[in-house]
């Protein structure tokens, strides 16, 4: 499903979100408060990105963005 052309900054934000989530998910993460705040900021940035006001089928696009960015991060991790 490559019908969505996501902006580079939105892709990077979602990738950063996955990285931050994984860093927070480890037992006894260092800088947990900082990571939680970063996750929150990234969540807001992704949620309020202008792309969503123009995307057709925004719900499907959100799922596709998460799928694309999470698969790529797992392959390189």
Which short descriptors sum up this protein?
single chain; 77 residues; mainly alpha; 69% helix; 0% strand; elongated
Tell me about the largest β-sheet.
none
What characteristic shape results from the CA principal axes?
Answer: elongated
Query: What's the pLDDT, averaged over the residues?
Result: 87
Strand content range: under 5%
Share of helical residues: 55-70%
Q: Report the total helices.
A: 3
Work out the radius of gyration. Answer: 13 Å
> How many DSSP E strands?
0
* End-to-end distance: 23 Å
**Class based on secondary structure composition and strand pairing:** mainly alpha
How would you describe this protein?
It is a single chain. This protein is an all-alpha fold. The chain contains 3 helices and no strands. The protein has helices spanning 8-25, 32-47, 58-76. Helix 1 (8-25) runs antiparallel to helix 2 (32-47) and helix 1 (8-25) crosses helix 3 (58-76). The chain is elongated. The protein starts with 7 loop residues before the first helix and ends with a helix. The model has no long low-confidence stretch (mean pLDDT 87).
């Amino acid at each position: 499903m490559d019908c969505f052309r996501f902006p580079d900054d939105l892709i990077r934000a979602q990738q950063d979100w996955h990285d931050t989530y994984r860093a927070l998910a480890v037992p006894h993460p260092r800088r947990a408060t900082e990571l939680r705040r970063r996750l929150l900021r990234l969540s807001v940035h992704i949620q309020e990105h202008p792309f969503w006001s123009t995307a057709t089928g925004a719900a499907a696009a959100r799922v596709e963005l998460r799928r694309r960015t999470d698969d790529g991060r797992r392959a390189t991790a």
